[in-house]
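User: structure tokens for this one?
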Amino acid sequence: MARSPDITDFATKLGLVLDRLNWSRAQLAQKVGVDKSVAQRWAGGQMVPGGSSLVALTAAIQSAMPDFTRADWRLPTDRFAARLGVAEPAPPATPEAVAALFPHATALAETALDSTVERYAGLWLLMHASVQAPENPGVVGYIASVAPTGRMLWAEVQGSLQGTWRAAGPVFALHKLVYLALEDRVQGDSLAFCVLTGVNWGKAMVLDGVASSAASSLRGPVAATRMIGVRLDDDPAPQWQADALRRLVRLNAEGLVGRLPEALAARFRMMRFEGERAMVLTVAAGDSLACDADEICQGLAPEGAAAVAAVRALFGL
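Assistant:
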């Protein structure tokens, strides 16, 4: 469907509406009478409703905000936010802003940027366990393009079941650990943080660690899960990323965990703690899959090699 010429920043405005009314995307789809994939594409910026869909969307909002009109969509984003009584999202973070926010980490990372690019730049599949059933979880995948930008490595990540979740942020490689901070670029209301075991030298092939986030600032639980990254390609070019994302959307819809080798899928299972308020999720060094290309070539990382081969096969590589 063509983008409506009289609506700018539609995804941002729709995100403001969802936050104002405390609606999920699934609830939006139900109230408007469209498929959930359509609501996902509206919220993700891939589609703008026109004609009857825009009328139905406006009517759904009017059920909760009677004075909302179709003309409100044409307001500038700051005035639209004021119209709803909410704050306009801040502009997304840039590498320059991050450098100012993390001066010491940036300085340390900058001194070894060439080595860091060699180890981690490329196209990655990031996988984490679903928190719905920790003892027998599904696995959700994301495509991450990691490339040098200015004084640091920068990650552009996209994934989820519909492929519409997008995030970006810095990658700090400090010693053998990789720190990744991601800012939601769709709704702008959530962050994700990852700490992964990397490699000391050479080209990393598998990363292994923990990711922590929440569904959004208004909805969903706070959770930490196992995260494993597998290198798909050394080239993070956009055309490779687009092809990998198309394959990933299909794999996520079919059930990614069912396509993984059992030994790899088992790594995402976590113990459920009953009657206890606190738990510590750890990935011990001796249990980590993290490895580099030389270790795989020399047969020193058989589980890592198996994970790389299986994941690449899923992407036709």
